[in-house]
Amino acid sequence: MAGSGEGGNGGVPAGGEVAMAPGVVTGGEEDAYGEDRATEDQPVTPWAVCIASGHSLLRDPRHNKGLSFTEKEREAHYLRGLLPPVVLSQDLQEKRMLQNVRQFQVPLQRYSALMDLQERNERLFYKLLIDNVEELLPVVYTPTVGEACQKYGSIFRRPQGLYVSLKDKGRILEVLRNWPEKSIQVIVVTDGERILGLGDLGCQGMGIPVGKLALYTALGGVRPSACLPITIDVGTNNEDLLKDEFYIGLKQRRATGQEYSELLDEFMAAVRQNYGQKVLVQFEDFANHNAFTLLEKYRTNHLVFNDDIQGTAAVVLAGLIAALKSVGGTLADHTFLFFGAGEAGTGIAELVALEISRQAKVSVEEARKKIWLVDSKGLIVTSRKETLQPFKKRYAHEHEPVKDLLGAVKAIRPTALIGSAGVGQSFTKEVIEAMSSINERPIILALSNPTSQSECTAEQAYTWSQGRAIFGSGSPFDPVKYNDKLFVPAQANNAYIFPGFGLGVVISGAVRVSDDMVLAAAEGLAEQVTPEHIEKGLIYPPFSIIRKISANIAARVAAKAYDLGMASQLPRPKDLVKYAESCMYSPVYRTYR
């Protein structure tokens, strides 16, 4: 039906009316719904299965403008009497909605209000998010989305995204074809086994792909119509969920081994068959034992990206490159100690090693010698090699065993301490003081989410280092005043990287993701950090300019894809930054014919 909650718009006729200037192709695809900035001034026909009008138009989130429908539009689309007589501007609607959201004191209530708006009026939701990104990002994503996933069963209103379960084995292509949109550019998929630092949330992990794709659109400008959130439900080992009468997923223990592998193989094959080889599949919040395996398995034949491994690595590498503007020297001049050797820690380490090898013109094996890892059993050294997982073995260096983090700091004497273990308060006063005695400007990155899992708070880092630390965190922290100086903690948020990275992949028509494209994204982010930012203690630019940042990252990623011969969108645009900006989604209401 025309007013279906998903937008119900798979029926734009071939060669039908579309919102495009003659000859304009944006994002590598026709702009059928008038979503890109390049087509902002073009009138659009609100096509659904037929031209949406009347009550169905008001129920279609893609085309609904609420009280912003003009008198002419109300007349043409049979809306007279279905709305109060006032006509409001989109800016006034936004102002009213922001006031409504701010009235809620509980973050989860704010989250629910914003999700309701997204299902009611898509453009207003994105305009609100884009214009108030620093205030609303923690609501639609970390840390609030974690609580939303925990309570997803009880706050569930209507389905968002696509659910693929073990019940669909042998029929996954059929499930994908049930999604109304046929032109998909980015898929974010999870199996819910490792949601943030909260563990196995099973089917309730859907909040993560939904939130992630909202950021692809708001921050990176990827069209919402081209985004598809998917949860693969293979069961859950969370006993609380298995006993919860409101749990929305399969009530069985997780499938593993061949059964799991065959389901994922079928899923990836179905995605490729249904959407082609240029759809970016982002793996999100898979457990460590699957995350590396899936990325390595599919990266040679599919366009895949793991934000927990590659996205986190890129944003941290960018922070380290920016921090060196204050500390001095190159990456190769310093030593890095990681607390946590899971997918995030080793992913960051690998990208840092790759960048060192590129900068210093040495082998990656040689570059890895500047990087040390600590896991739950202590410093990773060669005497432990027999018991280590494969991805840890490459960081096992010659050294006597060290059992704890403090001992490792004293023995290795690193410039930077990077935490990704999800163990709250593990950067103790003694650890920070040891880092401060070794370095004039110790780099302390407490990356674990949510806030309760953070290795230390911003206040602790600045206080225990006597205001000398260059600090970054995975969760947001308020500014800290120490000795009359105001420090603004930098949030090493993956949202700096993945939206612009995704846009770069889309606009270039890339068919594979290479490590050099991830490096290009990190370098593109670090370039945006100015001396003024460094003076304030910031190793990332302010989020208020995130769309400018994303356009520059997209241009760097696209340029690298073209240089490597991996881009299919030809000819190559002359100015990739301007092209990226023109392809970005614009939430401004369109005029309807």
UniProtKB/TrEMBL annotation:
Any GO MF annotation of the entry: NAD binding
Cofactor(s) named in the record: Mn(2+); Mg(2+)
Residues of the Malic enzyme NAD-binding domain: 309-562
Tree of life domain: Eukaryota
Keywords: Metal-binding, NADP, Oxidoreductase
Domain (Malic enzyme N-terminal) ranges: 118-299
Residues at which (S)-malate binds: R194, N449, N493
Pathway entry: Photosynthesis; C4 acid pathway
Catalysed conversion reaction: oxaloacetate + H(+) = pyruvate + CO2
PROSITE patterns with a match to the protein in the record: MALIC_ENZYMES (PS00331)
SMART domains (UniProt xref): malic (SM01274), Malic_M (SM00919)
Binding-site positions, a divalent metal cation: E284, D285, D308
InterPro entries: Aminoacid_DH-like_N_sf, Malic_enzyme_CS, Malic_N_dom, Malic_N_dom_sf, Malic_NAD-bd, Malic_OxRdtase, NAD(P)-bd_dom_sf
Pfam families: malic, Malic_M
Entry's family note: Belongs to the malic enzymes family.
Subunit composition and interactions: Homotetramer.
Full protein name: Malic enzyme
Taxonomic placement: Eukaryota, Viridiplantae, Streptophyta, Embryophyta, Tracheophyta
